[in-house]
Amino acid sequence: MAIGPSGSLVLEIKNRTINRKDGTRIIEELHKKTDRIQGITHPIRFGLAARSLEGKEEYHKNRIRVYDLKDILDLAAYPLEGNDLE
Model's pTM, two decimal places? Predict the structure, then answer.
């Protein structure tokens, strides 16, 4: 989790393949857990990282950040600049 003055990112990381049903359940649980976090700032962005993810396009349509192992390796290969994660 990252909490900053202009918003927060709540990201769950799993070391396995996540199907659409499990991914939806994980995101829903993240929403519930954030109610208990003191000092969290808004807007809150939610995300999921896993070895592989089924239905990545659907997550993107709902403005949920998702990363699979390939995405993470691609990020590691290039230095971040400015607001690349915005």
Answer: 0.76
